[in-house]
Design a protein that fits this description.
InterPro entries: Chromo-like_dom_sf, Chromo/chromo_shadow_dom
Oligomer: single chain
Helix content: under 10%
Strand content: 25-35%
Protein name: Chromo domain-containing protein
Organism: Vitis vinifera
Largest sheet: 3 strands, antiparallel
Strand order of the largest sheet: 1-2-3
Number of helices: 1
CATH class of one domain: Mainly Beta
CATH topology of one domain: OB fold (Dihydrolipoamide Acetyltransferase, E2P)
Radius of gyration: 17 Å
Shape: extended
CATH architecture of one domain: Beta Barrel
Order of helices and strands: EEEH
């Protein structure tokens, strides 16, 4: 059975903020680090950070390896 879809205004992206290149791609930039933590595996512990990405809500933040984020976006770590 189908139900009526109620639109969520937080899903709407302002297209004026998105710069699309000729090959129809864009670069997603991180806005801020929300949390610092670690991912534990059997024999390994990997430091990770929760990143809030541009054009996405906070609920869509992702966990990324800290080392990789420091290498590419070192300016985010001045806050800590």
């Amino acid at each position: 059975m189908l139900r009526k879809c109620t639109p969520d205004p937080t899903w709407v992206v302002d297209l004026q903020d998105v710069q699309i290149s000729e090959n129809t791609s864009y670069v997603e930039e991180p806005l801020r680090i929300l949390e610092v933590g670690e991912h534990r595996f059997r024999n390994k512990v990997i430091p990770a950070v929760k990143v809030w990405w541009q054009h996405h809500g906070i609920e869509e933040a992702t966990w990324e390896p800290e080392e990789e984020m420091r290498r590419h976006y070192s300016q985010l770590f001045y806050e800590f």
